[in-house]
Amino acid sequence: MEVDHLFPSSLGGPTTEDNLWLACGLCNDHKGNRVTATDPQDGSTLRLFNPRHDAWDDHFEWIEGGLRIAGKTAIGRATVNALHLNRRPLVTAREGWMAVGWHPPKT
């Protein structure tokens, strides 16, 4: 895990608690300095999910028994797509977590 600037410092985002979040390094690499992404369903450009201000359950759901994340909203779909939240290593990790009862998280 690494500290991510939700609004990137390269775009003027502050290094304040409200703008920082722990992120998987690879997810953060996929995010880069983006603040928007494209909804694969309708092609619209939207802001990325903000875990400090948005509720996870409003935008995402676990599918396939918890192996994959699906976007319930345009912001959710765009974020899943931009951050590659269902890439093989993450799905493999979720399989292992499920095997020991750590996943999916209880909401």
Record keyword descriptors for this entry.
107 residues, alpha+beta, two-stranded antiparallel sheet, 4 helices, 6 strands, 21% strand, globular
Describe this entry's structure for a reader:
The protein has 107 residues and is α+β, with helices and mostly antiparallel strands. The chain has one domain. Helices cover 31% and strands 21% of the residues. The protein has helices spanning 25-31, 56-59, 74-83, 88-99; strands spanning 2-5, 20-23, 36-38, 45-47, 60-63, 68-71. The strands form three sheets. A two-stranded antiparallel ribbon has the order 1-2. Strands 3-4 form a two-stranded antiparallel sheet. The chain is globular.
Quick summary of this structure?
The chain is of the alpha+beta class and 107 residues long.
